[in-house]
Structure formats: structure tokens, C-alpha cells
Amino acid sequence: MTTIQKIFYFFVLPCLGPLMFPPSTFTSQSGLILMAIVLVFLLGLGMLQLQGRSNALTFAIFLQGLNVIVRLMMVFPGAVSKDFKTDPIFILTMVAGIAISTFLLLRLDKNDIRRTMRT
Q1: Closest to 109 in 3D by CA, of 33, 54, 44, 71
Q2: Which pLDDT score, from 0 to 100, does residue 101 have?
Q3: Burial 3-18 (b: 16+ CB within 10 A, else e)
Q4: At what angle do helices 54-79 and 30-49 cross, to 10 degrees?
Q5: Does 28 score more than 80 pLDDT?
């Protein structure tokens, strides 16, 4: 596995999936979002540092699965406002977050990722 692929699977996608929210969220809660980015970045760094331990990979898979479940629970109540108007940006960002996390969830369980974590 190349270095670019490691960065993509252990840093970029784990940060991008859980933080895929509408732009209005980032302007109102920028400190919380920055803290979440740092936390997920440290998780990716820990995954690379803890090579040989499958617990880090299992934890990353668990977090991505949890992200999919929470987003599925949030998408329907948040998509429609109190005056029955839909929010297409919210729906698109939620579906994109679910798609990224699902892709990463399935990709992290492949043999080449597991071999990278063992070596």
C-alpha cells in the first residue's frame, strides 16, 4: 500500500465522513468541529503507530459504523423543518457522509488494509 493510500484511508476519509455536515453547522460551531477534526486525525495517527494491533483497526471500523447508524437516525427528523419544508443541503450532506463512512467501513475490512496494520 502506497503512502498516499495510507493517508487517504487513515486520515482523509475518517475525517471527511463524520464531518460531512451543512455549511451552516461549521459557521455556528467552529470550535467543536475543529476539536472533532483533531480527534479523528489523532485516531488515524494512532492507527498507523499501533501497527500490529488489530484493536485500532477494529475501533476505526466501529466508529465508522456508528457514524452510519447515527446519521440514518438523524437524516429523517432533520430533513423536514417544522413548517414541512425540506432542506436539500442537509439531505445531500447526510447522504454523502453515510456513503463515505459506508465505503470506508467496507474498505477497512479488506485484506490489504489488515496487512498494512500487521506490518
Answers
A1: 54
A2: 92
A3: eeeeebbbbebbbbbb
A4: 150
A5: no
C-alpha of 59 from chain center: 12
Q: Angle CA(117)–CA(36)–CA(102) in degrees, nearest 5? A: 55
Q: Residue 81: pLDDT above 70? A: yes
- Residue 48 has what pLDDT? 67
CA distances from 20 to 56, 81, 98 (A): 23, 20, 9
Cell reading at 77: 427528523
Using the predicted structure, report yes or no on whether residue 51 has a pLDDT greater than 60. Answer: no
Query: Burial, 33: exposed, middle or buried (Cβ in 10 Å; 0-12, 13-18, 19+)?
Result: middle
The helix-helix angle for 88-107 and 54-79 (nearest 10°) equals 160
Tell me the mean pLDDT in the region 23-49: 72
**pTM of the full structure:** 0.76
